[in-house]
Amino acid sequence: MNVSKQYQLKKYAEATLGAGYLKEIVKLPKGEDLNEWLAMGAVDFFSQTNMLFSLVFDWCTPLHCPIMSAGPKYSYYWKDDSKKGNSEPIQVPAPKYVDLLMTWIQAQIDNERLFPTKLGIPFSANFPSVVKVIFKRLHRVYAHLYHSHFDHLLSIGEEVHLNTSY
Where would one find coiled-coil regions in this protein (predicted)? Predict the structure, then answer.
């Protein structure tokens, strides 16, 4: 993406979001538990990403998106963290990557040891590191959406939703 395109997107995002307001929205509210805040944010970000990707599902095919990427400099490989040992990351088409990712994240959210749903049950010690991976991988989906599918999202009037959910 060239600099002028980046500038246009930045200006558009500021116009739709309001400059500086997001910094306040994402701050941990006083008196709230950090892990609860991260869990809520991760589940919401997961849901928003899932919904937005569904809007390009018919356009993001193995034929049109044979590599999960955000341009020629950024290709993302899938690493299956559920396998024992060191599994090597593999290159998969973008829709397969997103499917594997959403399945993996749903499994993390459904894991009561990671995302406890009952009061008084503590979060696991590795919760922050798992949430970090969730956010990092969801960021890749947004990078792919912006780079490969922004024009389609613009054509169906979903650019504001894309900008406000990211």
Answer: none
Structural contact between residues 149 and 161, judged by C-beta atoms closer than 8 angstroms: no
Q: Does 152 count as an annotated binding residue? A: no
From CA 10, how far away is CA 40, in angstroms rounded?
A: 27
- Residue 130: count other Cβ atoms within 10 Å of its Cβ: 19
Q: With 50 as the cut, is the pLDDT of residue 82 above it?
A: yes
Distance CA 25, CA 28 (A): 8
The phi-psi region of residue 84 (left if phi > 0; otherwise alpha if psi is between -120 and 50; otherwise beta) is: beta
Domain borders along the chain are 46-165
Top CATH class of 46-165 equals: mainly alpha
144 annotated binding-site participant: yes
* 96-149 pLDDT per residue, tens: 999 999 999 999 999 999 999 887 889 999 999 999 999 999 999 999 999 999
